[in-house]
Amino acid sequence: MPASHPVPPTGRLIKTASAAAMLLMGGCAQKGDFGRPAPSAWNSLVATTGTLAAQYRNEPASDFSLTDDERTLRDRAWRFLMPAAESETFADALANLTRTRVLPPSWREDDVTSYHAALVAEPFRSPVSRYRRLADDITADARLIPLFVATAARVANADTLRLRSLPFVKSLDDESIRQAAMRVAENRCLVAWVRLETGVRAERYRYALQHLLVEVPSVEAVSVERSLAGLDGRRVMLDPLLPAAAEARCGLVEAPAPQAARPIVAKY
């Protein structure tokens, strides 16, 4: 039999792109309760492919099984990593492939106008309904943040225990230690991603409110503004979970350029 050869980088890239295309053609993720991904063979395939794709890009991704809290953390992250408003099937599928890491986070939609565009495109009997839908989406985000934070804190405590245990388990090989470190980094980067996206969503909500107020003025805007203030008040609950630079370290945003050192002027 001919000797097997490693797949060249271009070949692996083509295979990854082909897998992404196949998954994209399959449509959006099959949804369960509260918009979360339903347990199914299809969603498992997407998740597995996402882990492999993330590993290929040298992003933190572990082959370890998820703990109950880690699985819950990913379920509760779902809302913040998917579009806030119903969109076109292609855009939803693209967002899901990004959430599951088949595609890198750089594929995510950063357009601040996207929520407003989707909101005004939906058929409503009255303009007031748009304000109420906006308020409902904002409130749903705000209510989920404390639950996400509580789960993230439990995961962080478990990760601390995991790392502290490594020196005492003498039978661990280098690969097991690497997988443990990758899972800790993976969990932290997921929290960083959610923290980033909650800010992006707040900006989209604020843009939608401001433009609705010009397009179809209504006293309902007062209620929406209060909801936004509540969301901003709860978003700060995510800050103590990670250092400020976590998003840059995880590759979610560009790291700030290092400032040139100021010359030291000797005093005589």
Spell out the key features of this protein.
268 residues, 0% strand, Lipoprotein, mainly alpha, disordered C terminus, disordered N terminus, single chain
Describe this structure in words.
The protein has one domain. It is built from 9 helices and no strands. The chain has helices at 9-25, 41-56, 68-81, 89-99, 114-121, 127-165, 174-215, 220-235, 246-249. The chain starts with 8 loop residues before the first helix and ends in a 19-residue tail after the last helix. It comes from Methylobacterium bullatum. This is Lipoprotein.
Helix content: 55-70%
Number of domains: 1
Radius of gyration: 22 Å
The biggest beta sheet, please? none
> Low-confidence parts, pLDDT < 50 over ≥5 residues?
1-30, 40-53, 263-268
Beta strand count = 0
Oligomer description:
single chain
Task: Tell the overall outline.
Answer: elongated
Q: Helix-strand pattern, N to C?
A: HHHHHHHHH
Mean pLDDT: 75
- Strand-residue proportion: under 5%
The number of helical segments is 9
Structure classification = mainly alpha
Taking the alpha carbons of the first and last residues, their distance comes to 79 Å
List the SSEs and their pairings:
Blueprint: H1 9-25, H2 41-56, H3 68-81, H4 89-99, H5 114-121, H6 127-165, H7 174-215, H8 220-235, H9 246-249
Protein name: Lipoprotein
Organism: Methylobacterium bullatum
